[in-house]
């Protein structure tokens, strides 16, 4: 997803990890999930994504684009994203994080 100045958001993830550390970056991912989720259902739905996406700079996206985002991350096929699916999707969207993800995930789990 490119912005007007052609910077892709996932390019910032490695520098965020470097700046915030592993735990700080995970905390930010969790905060992003909470911003986008449906408070009653505890997951990101198409409706909650449409309603809250402007806060993350995604306000100009069409319903089809938002639906595609959900489908990309929806590992269990329930039409929504739980917190784990959201974090996995964020990792998949960042090639640099994927390179070191095994070591990074091991650190998070310990």
Output the keywords.
110 residues, mainly alpha, 6 helices, 0% strand, calcium, calcium ion binding
Strand content: under 5%
Q: What is the 3D shape?
A: globular
Q: Portion of residues in helices?
A: 55-70%
Report the total helices. Answer: 6
Rg value: 14 Å
Q: Give the termini separation.
A: 32 Å
* Secondary-structure element order, N to C: HHHHHH
Low-confidence stretches: 5-10
- Kindly state the mean pLDDT as a whole number? 80
> What class would the helix/strand composition place it in?
mainly alpha
Number of strands: 0
Largest sheet: none
Keywords: Calcium
GO molecular function: calcium ion binding
Protein name: EF-hand domain-containing protein
Domain EF-hand: 61-96
Descriptive notes:
With 110 residues, the protein is mostly helical. 60% of the residues lie in helices and 0% in strands. Helix 1 (13-36) packs antiparallel against helix 4. The longest helix is centred in the N-terminal third of the chain and has 24 residues, at 13-36. It is globular and about 35 Å long. The termini are far apart. Mean pLDDT is 80; it is low at 5-10.
Brief account:
Residues 61-96 form the EF-hand domain. This protein has helices at 13-36, 46-52, 63-73, 83-92, 95-99, 101-109.
Fold blueprint:
Layout: H1 13-36, H2 46-52, H3 63-73, H4 83-92, H5 95-99, H6 101-109
Helix pairs in contact: 1-4
């Amino acid at each position: 997803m490119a912005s007007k100045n052609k910077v892709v958001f996932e390019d910032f993830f490695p520098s965020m990890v470097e700046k915030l550390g592993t735990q700080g970056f995970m905390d930010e991912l969790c905060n992003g999930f909470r911003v986008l989720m449906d408070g009653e259902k505890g997951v990101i739905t198409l409706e909650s994504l449409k309603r809250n996406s402007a806060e993350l700079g995604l306000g100009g996206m069409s319903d089809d684009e938002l639906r595609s985002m959900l489908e990309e991350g929806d590992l269990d096929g329930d039409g929504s994203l739980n917190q784990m699916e959201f974090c996995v999707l964020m990792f998949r969207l960042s090639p640099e994080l994927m390179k070191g993800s095994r070591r990074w995930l091991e650190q998070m789990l310990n």
